[in-house]
Amino acid sequence: MTVQNGTFTIDSKTVDMPVKEGSIGPAVVDIAALYKNTGMFTYDPGFTSTASCESKITYIDGDKGVLLHRGYPIEQLAENGDFLETCHLLLHGELPTPAEKVDFDHRVTRHTMVHEQMMRFFQGFRRDAHPMAIMVASVGAMAAFYHDSTDISDPHQRMVASMRMIAKMPTLAAMAYKYSIGQPFVYPKNDLDYAANFLNMCFSVPCEDYKANPVLARALDKIFILHADHEQNASTSTVRLAGSSGANPFACIAAGVACLWGPAHGGANEAALKMLEEIGSVERIPEYIARAKDKNDPFRLMGFGHRVYKNYDPRARIMQKTTHEVLQELGIKDDPLLDVAMELERIALSDPYFIEKKLYPNIDFYSGITLKAMGFPTSMFTVLFAVARTVGWIAQWKEMIEDPAQKIGRPRQLYTGAPQRDYVPMIKR
Ligand code: SDX
Question: What is the sign of the dihedral through the CA atoms of 306, 339, 324 and 331?
Answer without folding.
Answer: positive
